[in-house]
Design goal:
The complex is a heterodimer of chains A (about 140) and B (about 425).
Chain A: E1 4-8, H1 17-28, E2 32-35, H2 42-52, E3 56-61, H3 66-78, E4 88-92, H4 98-111, E5 115-117, H5 123-140
Helix pairs in contact in A: 3-4
Chain B: H1 7-17, E1 22-24, H2 32-44, E2 51-54, H3 57-60, H4 64-73, H5 87-94, E3 104-107, H6 114-122, E4 127-129, H7 144-161, E5 167-169, H8 182-198, E6 204-209, H9 214-231, E7 238-243, H10 253-269, E8 274-276, H11 289-304, H12 316-335, H13 341-350, E9 368-372, E10 378-383, H14 390-396, H15 405-412, H16 414-422
Parallel strand pairs in B: 1-8, 2-3, 4-5, 5-6, 6-7, 7-8
Antiparallel strand pairs in B: 9-10
Helix pairs in contact in B: 2-11, 6-7, 8-9, 8-12, 9-10, 9-12, 10-11, 10-16
The chains are: A alpha/beta (about 140), B alpha/beta (about 425).
């Protein structure tokens, strides 16, 4: 059975295409993807995490509010016992100011994300990390 | 009861009668003074413009507490939080600016818009936009049935407040922003107009977004007009608004200008009366006031020379006929589905008779796909459960593409690559 990647976004982000694209990308990297669609409330995300116990969580957000809601999301997620050691990634447009986003990425990583990506050029690096997770999941099983 | 100025639609029709395309920005700032400066700058531009107040995404999703908190802390939002500002502040925002020759529209994206409508009415603003499908499916996970309830209430409030003259624009022709066959866009925007009429609105607009081939776009606009005449109220009650491409935007200055200008020409040739513009900064950041002004100016200039016979353009007549027949078939399915329009709307989506490609909403069947050919013409890839008759399918479907993230990205980037590669290589990055 393939490991589960839970694909989600922040509550205020109603964008769709990034999620369609990332779903295909994750599938091509060997994951079974549960795509929660746009505008996911924290409560629904927590419920899904408890229910599915995913191997990885990906937060894709491009509405510019990632630097605000992304922090609350990771705080709530890391309070779940089953999510303590699960890698969580966030990526997209993290704020409305392209120049500030790399700084916000650092803040988000400090808040608990395995990695925060603020541009599309990071997809290769993200690919590598997904492969690592895939290997680790295979080993731990 | 507010006495309606009915300025918005009247201004657009008046300009159209003089063969002038009305251009409109998407501008929205959380800072009150900046928002007012923005409206002022748009008004001062020497082109037929209408003002826009675009709301932030907290307000859009009904999270007024977060919007208010951000305002209190001075954190920048991605739009103007109309519900978090007082009615007096909202009135002050447009006082002395809004006029018969400078109407203002609130743009929001709310699936459940009752509070937004109330704040808009209280501010005395008589033009707004959206619809129960177009602001439900692409923007979140709220059930269609809840959106229908909220939009019915909102439309009736608006109709009552402005004596039927309040103007609502359907966003139905912009579903997903890109990679959506024009027939379903047309069907949805017409369905939303019928919904408005049912709920007392007598001034409305139909929308369509720029796609990936101008011939197909002009044809789609012409087909939309034909079907509007067939299904809706008298033409003096409605107009058509075209949108500059809403998907992945050219990154180069020249590429962005070229696609903006092309959208203005398509709008005019296809008979649209109003254009919602994008800016050259679109691919990079939230545009400033100046970016918006430049975009409006450039789009308006490009529209002036474009009043020519669209049917003289090769391919337009055939595409128009094909899109019209396809959309007409979809509308016919809707109107024969159930006893009421609302039940029919829920019914066609529930059965997958209407199915928006790539839309992740839980009430969308997700059985259809769309794809582009080498020239940028959009086709259905898979029509899912849509019961198109064979002869429509033959024209409208192109199969054989394996969907991958790379291929999807390529299709989403079609315009970006087309217009950027035509730009001067040395100036490709701004």
């Amino acid at each position: 059975m393939k490991p589960i990647a839970l694909l989600t976004t922040i509550p205020s982000d109603s964008h769709n295409w990034n999620l369609v694209y990332i779903q295909l990308f994750l599938e091509e990297h060997g994951f079974t993807v549960v795509n929660m669609g746009p505008s996911v409330p924290f409560s629904l995300l927590l419920e899904k995490c408890r229910q599915l116990e995913p191997s990885v969580v990906i937060v894709s957000t491009i509405n510019g509010h990632g630097y605000i809601e992304g922090k609350e999301l990771i705080r709530q997620l890391k309070e779940l016992e089953c999510m303590k050691d699960i890698p969580v990634f966030i990526g997209g447009k993290l704020s409305t100011d392209a120049n500030m986003s790399s700084l916000y990425a650092v803040e988000l990583e400090e808040a608990g994300y395995r990695k925060a990506y603020d541009s599309r050029e990071d997809m290769t690096e993200f690919s590598r990390r997904l492969e690592e997770i895939l290997l680790q999941t295979a080993v731990s099983r | 009861m507010y006495t309606s100025p009915g300025w918005f639609h009247r201004f657009v029709k008046e300009q159209a009668s003089h063969k002038r395309l009305v251009v409109q920005p998407r501008m929205g700032f959380s800072d009150h003074a900046e928002m007012r400066r923005g409206l002022q700058a748009v008004k001062q531009l020497n082109a037929p413009t209408v003002g826009t107040i675009t709301l932030d995404s907290f307000t859009r999703n009904g999270d007024f507490a977060s919007a208010a908190r951000a305002v209190a802390k001075g954190l920048p939002l991605n739009g103007y939080p109309i519900v978090s500002h007082t009615c007096e502040e909202n009135q002050a925002l447009i006082a002395g600016l809004r006029a018969p020759d400078f109407p203002v529209q609130v743009r929001h994206g709310s699936p459940l818009p009752v509070e937004v409508f109330k704040a808009t009415i209280a501010a005395g603003i008589d033009a707004i936009e959206g619809g129960p499908i177009s602001y439900c499916f692409p923007y979140g996970r709220i059930p269609l049935s809840s959106c229908l309830d909220a939009w019915r209430i909102s439309n009736r409030l608006f109709a009552g407040a402005f004596d039927g003259q309040g103007h609502i624009e359907s966003f139905g022709g912009c579903m997903m922003g890109q990679l959506c066959p024009p027939s379903i866009l047309i069907a949805i925007t017409i369905a939303e107009a019928l919904f408005m009429i049912d709920n007392g609105i007598r001034s409305y607009s139909l929308s369509l977004a720029q796609g990936t081939h101008s011939t197909q776009d002009v044809a789609a606009l012409l087909a939309l007009r034909q079907l509007g005449r067939k299904y809706l109220g008298p033409e003096h009650q409605w107009h058509i608004v075209f949108y500059t491409f809403m998907g992945k935007f050219p990154q180069s200055y020249e590429g962005a200008v070229a696609i903006m200008e092309e959208s203005a020409r398509i709008a005019v040739q296809g008979g649209a009366e109003r254009l919602i513009v994008k800016t050259v900064k679109e691919a990079h950041q939230i545009p400033t006031i100046e970016d918006n002004i430049n975009a409006l100016d450039c789009s308006s200039q490009a529209s002036i020379a474009a009043y020519t016979d669209p049917l003289a353009r090769p391919g337009v007549a055939a595409w128009m006929e094909q899109i019209r027949e396809e959309a007409d078939f979809l509308i016919d399915l809707l109107l024969n589905k159930a006893a009421t329009l609302e039940k029919s709307m829920a019914g066609v989506f529930g059965q997958g008779y209407w199915d928006v490609p790539y839309c992740l909403h839980p009430d969308n069947k997700r059985m259809t796909t769309a794809q582009l050919d080498d020239q940028g013409f959009i086709y259905w890839g898979d029509t899912g459960c849509i019961p198109f008759p064979r002869h429509i399918k033959t024209n409208a479907v192109r199969k054989g593409m394996q969907l991958s993230s790379g291929r999807l990205l390529q299709m989403l980037s079609f315009n970006q690559q087309k217009y950027d590669s035509a730009a001067q290589p040395a100036l490709t990055h701004i």
